[in-house]
Specification:
about 220 residues; mainly alpha
Length: about 220
Amino acid sequence: MLDFLLFMLFSVLESCALFFLAFKIFKIDLYEKEIIFASMIMGGFSYVLRNNYNSPDVDVLLQYILVFCFFWLLFRIQVFYATIMTAMAYQAFLLIQSVLYLLMKMSGIYELQYPILSFGTYLLQFISSIITLYIGYYIGKKRKGFDFVPDKPDGSINISSRDKIMFILTLPSPFFTLFMLFSAKHLFEFFSLIPIFYAVLLFGYLYLSNKKDHDKHDY
């Protein structure tokens, strides 16, 4: 029971941090109750897949799909922009988490165990979530985000060449997430490539988003 409660606590914290960061990046009003509700559903699915079916790879893909579906169907973001928000939020969060994992693994902190607790895993989830929440808070406080994503599902959108490039950048995101999981278990010597991949993709997103935001305000 304790294992389930801890798993849910830190999984919900991770998901809330990811949603919070995404909303702050794109200057969209928060839906606190809905975010917690969505995070609890994601945590429940994750627990079943990882503990009952021992399928972390399926869990990774399902979590990605659920985030997209919640942006689209629960938070009512247009499907095209829901795809972009999902990818950018994941890349930012996993960049933070992959760097922390690398540091904790190399220092030995990640291997710390207690009789019934995977201390290193929970510590990684906690620290990465806190950092993500702080970054989201800082972005919101300084008004550093982008506002080209409409927070209403109605109305048509004009997809430019820049939008198509941003969409293309979303495609490798779930596969990098799977590679991150695989390399952490079997190819740790290549794990240092993961933060680089995420940093490059995230830079591309931020650059294109900044250009798109400026173009929107220049006409």
